[in-house]
Amino acid sequence: GKLLLVALGGTFAVEGLWFLNHFDRAAPNVALGWFIGFWLIFLILPFAFRKRCEDLGDAWIVAAVSGVSQFLLVYPLFKQSFPNDVMGLVPAAFAVPSLLGLYGIQKFFPGMDKRQQSRLAWFGGVALLFITLIFPIQFERQWITVSWAIEGALLIWLFRRVPHVGLLLTGLALLAISFVRLTLNPAVFTSYERSGTAILNWHLYAYGTVAAAQFIGARWFTDPENRLGQFKPVAALYTMGGILVFLLLNIEIADFFTDPGSRYVAFRFGGNFARDMTYSIAWGLFSLALLGIGFRCGSKHARFAAIGLLVLTLVKVFLHDLAAIQNIFRIGALIGVAIIAFIASFLYQRFFDKPDKGPPPLT
Fold first, then answer.
1. Which residues of 113-151 are buried (b: 16+ CB within 10 A; e: fewer)?
2. Which residues, 6 or more positions from 249, have their beta carbon under 8 angstroms from its beta carbon?
3. Integer angstrom CA distances of residue 314 from 257, 281, 320
């Protein structure tokens, strides 16, 4: 089993070095044949000798991840030698053998012991990886980040059916990494140009998909055997999703008010009353929505975050927005702020100023 891991690693290293230094994009067929051939050898080997490999967990790991190693070579080969508008078909083709392998494992090895869980987890995870790559690769922008987020949520779903803790930890890690790549990576706004379309653009697709993956992952999370101990990631997943939605809101506003013809989104404050008030109104409405969610779900942390954002919005309006507008517009701005504050106050009275019924009477 260990020798197969070494063999796969050595094969991939030699292939990668050759591809980087000697690949001829005008004659890709020989290289493509070698890449596919090595993949099929490692994939079929444990099935062909399944009696001998039944107890060799590393052999099944190699069979599962061999497709990933060869995909890292086949995909750039297609981009260089066969450029087209349907590149999403490449991961789709790679998903088929993994799904067939998953079917073969269930057919040849009935039951659900630890060895079977490991086999199903590896082949299922790789199959989901290729499936989640189809849509992001087809649309290109931030495809790695989006695919990692979708893969993370699906691995948490798969954990509900194949209780292998590696699926759960990998899914949570992928969701966390995808969040970091979109929130702490300034290159997002300098490497990808604006699409020129307001609202329905790649920002909505990338940030919206990753945020949805965070929410779905939190919804699907389960740990009945308490394998993670005291760590409960549901709140963290919901928090990361909420932050991404808030960032998306601000990015869409900035994109809408960016000067026509500009290549990248410009974040500016001041000098444009409509833009500044749009930010303030959006922040206020977001805080109200977050406050309502906090009451609905009984989350005090969501309520505290909503109040904090609402206070920040009020400070921005009074210290920044109102100073740059004329008196007649100040009246309208103050009315809008008063309405938001009134709704927040009403929500608190609605949910907290209820009469205390006291304990039930003794019988």
1. eeebbbbbbbbbbbbbbbbbbbbbbbeebbbebbbbbbb
2. 282, 286
3. 22, 10, 10
- Domain holding 330, by residue range, is 268-352
Q: Which residues contact 144 (CB under 8 A, 6 or more apart)?
A: 136, 181
Residues 123 and 25 grouped into a single domain? yes
Number of Cβ within a 10 Å radius of residue 154: 24
**Distance of alpha carbon 49 from alpha carbon 52, whole angstroms:** 6
Crossing angle between the packed helical segments 165-183 and 234-257, to the nearest 10 degrees: 30
Both 244 and 319 in a single domain?
A: no
Distance CA 1, CA 3 (A): 5
What's the pLDDT tens digit per position in 42-87? Answer: 999 999 998 999 888 899 999 999 999 999 999 999 999 999 989 9
CB 244, CB 183: distance < 8 Å? yes
pTM: 0.81
CA dist 96 and 87 (Å) reads 16
